[in-house]
Amino acid sequence: MAKRSDAKQRMVQAARQLIRERGYHATAISDVLERSGAPRGSVYFHFPGGKPQLAVEAAEAHAHEQVQYIDRAAEQADTAAGLVEVYLDLAREGMVNSDYTRGCGIAPLVTEAAQQEAAGVGDTSRRGFSAMTDRLAFHFVDFGLDGASARQLADAVLAGVEGALVTARAQRSPAPFDAVRAIMAGYARAAAPTSAPRRRR
Amino acid sequence: MAKRSDAKQRMVQAARQLIRERGYHATAISDVLERSGAPRGSVYFHFPGGKPQLAVEAAEAHAHEQVQYIDRAAEQADTAAGLVEVYLDLAREGMVNSDYTRGCGIAPLVTEAAQQEAAGVGDTSRRGFSAMTDRLAFHFVDFGLDGASARQLADAVLAGVEGALVTARAQRSPAPFDAVRAIMAGYARAAAPTSAPRRRR
Fold first, then answer.
1. In terms of Cα–Cα distance, which of B119, B152, B146 is closest to B53?
2. pTM
3. Which residues on B lie below 8 Å from A163 (Cβ)?
4. Which residues in chain A touch residue B166, judged by CB atoms under 8 angstroms apart?
5. I need a surface site. Which of A55, A185, B61, B153 has the fewest CB within 10 A?
6. Contact, A86 vs A145, CB < 8 A?
7. Predicted complex ipTM
8. How close is the nearest chain A Cα to the Cα of B154, in Å?
9. Are A132 and A158 in contact (CB under 8 A)?
10. Do A162 and B163 touch (CB under 8 A)?
């Protein structure tokens, strides 16, 4: 059982990598098997819904990891602006370290209209992005922003990161991450009264 | 000749629409023919490079249209902040009017790694995005921003729009456009001295 579950996890991670590199349609089940080293027979055992199910689980894993990154960034930061900066630095680092070959693990499901292939795919991308903005907004409030400003900043940070994952990749330059980082952190600095105590500490 | 050229333009526009709706790989030549009403024989007459060439011309048409939108927004605006607002409103309107079915005409070439299919595709997306940021930065300088601030704002606005085209679509909500608009316009307002004359008028 442990081994089967390992194979499943390896397949989900391989699918996530491939979708980030080449999108949804260009990711074939055979590529996922090759990269994960999982046996062919395991596909429909672990993923009776086939490729759409694999993509849904890959997108969920991606969103889960991003929420963890957001939490880790909030741990390292002392202010809302600091959270913006650390999170943007993580995203920038991932792009540069992949030599501009790896984008978002959720966006391809949206831009390739993968929801037309199977029920539930559209829900997955919506829920994944919502989980990320909700977590960002939660921490921004925690750092002293009012609810409306926190929500606005969270929506803008997610859009900025998602866009930079495309434009930085196309231009092979981290400049879009740096630009989003500077402008969003500036907004956060102005929106959070410096005297506001951080609630949870 | 006029008719042939019409067919070519119709095919480019049909390819652009389809790529915006479903991405690069899911757009088949047969779909482009069906939507454009062009005869099958015209594909390799007008596009000897096949689908990659069609996608490149569609992306170039998309970038060209966006640069026109940026110029039109600059005409309507009196300040850098106004340009940000009008351009974001145009992008938001396009998304809402398409009932959240239409994204960017360039991004799928990047996220689906279409540059691996044919030489020149990667250049097209890089040049398309550069044309847009260059034009935004040009107008921001024209409205009184210094060169570095103008470039930073242009990179951030493009990233914000590209990201909102994904996250707003996934969430079926214009909130990401509104959030990017508010924060970027605020930055523009702070960066442009109100007393600065607009250079070209």
1. B119
2. 0.95
3. 158-166
4. 104, 107, 110-111, 159, 162-163
5. B61
6. no
7. 0.95
8. 8
9. yes
10. yes
Contact B176 A160 (CB under 8 A): no
pLDDT tens per residue across span B130-168? 999 999 999 999 999 999 999 999 999 999 999 999 999
* Helix (H), strand (E) at residue B157: helix B147-171
Query: What are the tens digits of pLDDT across the range A69-78?
Result: 999 999 999 9
Q: Specify whether the CB–CB gap between A79 and A183 falls below 8 A.
A: no
Q: Tell me if B24 sits within 8 A of B118, measured CB to CB.
A: no
User: Cα(A59)–Cα(A72) distance, rounded to whole angstroms?
Assistant: 20
Cα nearest neighbour of B103 on chain A: A111
Distance between CA atoms of residues B16 and B109, nearest Å = 11
Scan for tokens 């993968």, then name that residue. A114
What distance in Å separates the CA atoms of residue A134 and residue A131, rounded to the nearest whole number? 5
Query: Chain A: nearest CA to B158, how far in angstroms?
Result: 7
Q: Using the beta-carbon criterion (under 8 Å), do B122 and A152 form an inter-chain contact?
A: no
Residue A27, both tokens: 């990711």
Between chains, do B25 and A21 touch, taking CB under 8 Å as contact? no
Long-range contacts of B7-11 (CB under 8 A, 24+ apart): B7/B36, B7/B38, B7/B39, B7/B42, B7/B46, B8/B42, B8/B46, B10/B36, B10/B37, B10/B38, B11/B36, B11/B38, B11/B42, B11/B43, B11/B46, B11/B47, B11/B54
Q: How many CB atoms lie within 10 A of CB A41?
A: 10
